[in-house]
Recover the amino acids of this structure.
């Protein structure tokens, strides 16, 4: 199964990124192809300069590890990045700046598409 | 037949609309604050097969025994997604 | 085969960006064999009114989507009971919106391959 998960709201304030990553990890562990599309404020999660306090989870690090170790695919809405001052030098390795044509392709080609409502 | 994903609690107007429009053969998964729907017996009036993400439920201070729906883990969540082509989330 | 995708917005068009983002996303779908529709419910119903103008507060105007709705002939829907609840008396003709009864939503939702609440 090819599964795409879209997230729209910001990390750390809300739980959506955390939920999406746990779903993604469970899917990858079952051998599915899993991608995450970061839209609107959720693109903040891709910033490698994020420095949470030690007691908190490091979401960009988690994404980076899932990309490198389990094959998670991550697409980021490029316009959403521009709006929020994130450039391609800041994003974690393996994540890809893309856009709505890529989202359309993901929706069309994925067997399942789930989104986290804002 | 569709899979409904419910992530907000009982005050959210969109979740209310979703839950008013389920059918008996639909599947509903309650995650995040959506779990608050599942602790009241009114949940039994909502049509569809209902599941709640166990970790989101327990983390909000509830005992497994107080769930009025079946509790699932992320692995089972994936299986349910795989079984349901149509997703309303 | 075409995929039928419904984008649903429930939050107010003044103070949140989701109507604009729903339409922007819907317009992005036309590169694939995807038939997008947009449904405005609850507080988002006021986005159907020609008198709703976020730009008076310096926010992004809704009217910017009108020409693309026309160009792509994107199907736009509202809900009668929700328009009444929020005092929407006139529907902006630029949307050519179809107004559903709340009782029709069940069948309407289930007629799409994916329903994406924004």
């Amino acid at each position: 199964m090819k599964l795409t998960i879209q997230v729209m709201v910001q990390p750390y304030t809300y739980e959506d990124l955390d939920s999406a990553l746990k779903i993604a990890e469970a899917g990858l562990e079952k051998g599915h192809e899993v991608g995450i599309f970061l839209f609107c404020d959720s693109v903040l999660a891709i910033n490698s300069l994020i420095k949470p306090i030690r007691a908190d989870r490091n979401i960009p690090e988690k994404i980076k590890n899932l990309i490198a170790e389990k094959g998670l695919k991550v697409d980021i809405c490029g316009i959403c990045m521009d709006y929020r001052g994130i450039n391609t030098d800041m994003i974690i390795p393996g994540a890809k700046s893309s856009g709505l044509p890529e989202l359309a392709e993901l929706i069309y080609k994925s067997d399942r598409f789930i989104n986290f409502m804002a | 037949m569709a899979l409904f994903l419910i992530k907000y609690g009982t005050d959210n107007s969109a979740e209310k609309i979703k839950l008013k429009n389920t059918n008996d053969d639909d599947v509903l998964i309650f995650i995040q604050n959506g779990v608050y729907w599942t602790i009241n017996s009114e949940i039994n009036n909502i049509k569809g097969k209902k599941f709640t993400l166990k970790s989101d439920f327990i983390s909000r201070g509830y005992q497994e025994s107080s769930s009025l729906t079946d509790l699932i883990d992320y692995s089972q969540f994936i299986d349910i997604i795989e079984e349901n082509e149509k997703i309303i989330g | 085969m075409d995929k039928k995708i419904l984008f649903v917005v429930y939050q107010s068009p003044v103070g949140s960006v989701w109507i604009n983002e729903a339409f922007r996303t819907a317009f992005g779908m036309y590169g694939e064999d995807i038939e997008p529709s947009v449904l405005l419910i609850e507080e988002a119903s006021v986005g159907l009114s020609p008198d709703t103008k976020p730009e008076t507060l310096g926010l992004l105007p809704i009217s910017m989507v009108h020409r693309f709705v026309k160009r792509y002939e994107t199907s736009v829907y509202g809900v009668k009971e929700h328009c009444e609840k929020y005092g929407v008396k006139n529907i902006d003709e630029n949307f050519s919106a179809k107004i559903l009864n709340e009782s029709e939503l069940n069948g309407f939702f289930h007629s799409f391959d994916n329903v994406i609440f924004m």
Chain A touches chain B at residues 1, 3, 15-16, 19, 22-23, 25-27, 29-30, 32, 111-117 (CB under 8 Å).
